[in-house]
Amino acid sequence: MGRPPCCDKVGIKKGPWTPEEDIILVSYIQEHGPGNWRSVPTNTGLLRCSKSCRLRWTNYLRPGIKRGNFTPHEEGMIIHLQALLGNKWAAIASYLPQRTDNDIKNYWNTHLKKKIKKLQTALDPHKASDSTTFQLVSKNYGEKRSLDIINNASALTLNQSSTYASSTENISRLLEGWMRSSPKSTTLKRDQENNDINLDNNDISGIGTAVAATSLQCYAAKAEQESCDFISHEEFESLLSIENLSSVAWEKSSDSNPSGYQADFTDERLHFMSERKHRLENQPPVSFIEKWLLDEAAGQVEEMMELSPIF
DNA sequence: AAAAGGAACAACCGCACAAGA
DNA sequence: TTCTTGTGCGGTTGTTCCTTT
């Protein structure tokens, strides 16, 4: 006996999200922050269940998510952590702040499993089990680091949990991408754009998450060129607060349409979107923070590189 | 050029758990 | 204490894209 479904399934849209839906969701979250997912479909008019909205945000739209190819360093981290923790994707993801558990899980299932099997077969055709993977990796990786990982796990997890990073550029790019996308534009295109966004931003969310920077986190950060920073959470929040990012009152448009928002865009909404876009583009750039963080982290990153013989 | 098969990944489903009423 | 709600998590499925024939 599980819980009842999060929403009744009648009239609920399933399948891939459209750019329009993404925009609506992002706009709403910009305004209200993530959370209270049950109210999201009601307030936005999205024909999605709350859970779907949350997942979409968590796994795809949330700023600071890095998409695309995993670096060899990340691969190594995943392999090692998987051997240590098993299929605890969320736990593993906490060491790779830019990656979602879903992403890691997918990557494991589609790439790493095969890779490891191949490697094991090559090394020892008779033994091909997960435990040998661990031994193989761990041997190179070093016992001490393994212990560090475990010791730091709780601190990191705590640290991650309160993170909500907003990225002006991310949202703005998303809007731009949607604005200029032809009807034929696909998820792939969005992927590409998100990729660009994240490359540009180099993950601002890291600022928030790295307050209690541990050695492992620096290590993880290395893979991403992410920052092991020394900015306080408060500072971060004030720099990139939701208030700073929010613009046109969303309620306005939804209030003026008591019958509920429909999925198709009205002129009013398009106007709302373009106004938002304009405002977002005029937000102060955050690149100086990125630069500062990258400079700050550069030294540590190099150190970590030295310490990781197998990756 | 078209079809088939496989790979990759986004999204869904069901369950568990914590918090609050 | 019990029930409801919100959220997290891991497994699985479905769709799209890519490669091969």
TrEMBL record:
Matching Gene3D superfamilies: Homeodomain-like
GO biological process: response to abscisic acid; response to auxin; response to stress; stomatal movement
Residues annotated as transmembrane: none
Stretches assigned to the HTH myb-type domain: 9-65, 66-116
Main subcellular location of this protein, as a coarse class: nucleus
Annotated ranges, domain Myb-like: 9-61, 62-112
SUPFAM superfamilies noted in UniProt: Homeodomain-like (SSF46689)
A Gene Ontology term for the protein's cellular component: nucleus
Annotated keywords: DNA-binding, Nucleus, Repeat, S-nitrosylation, Transcription, Transcription regulation
A Pfam family of this chain: Myb_DNA-binding
InterPro entries xrefs: Homeodomain-like_sf, Myb_dom, Myb_TF_plants, SANT/Myb
Subcellular location(s) of the protein: Nucleus
Molecular function terms, GO-annotated: DNA binding
SMART domains reported in the protein's UniProt record: SANT
PANTHER family tied to this protein: MYB FAMILY TRANSCRIPTION FACTOR, TRANSCRIPTION FACTOR MYB60
Name of the protein in question: Transcription factor MYB60
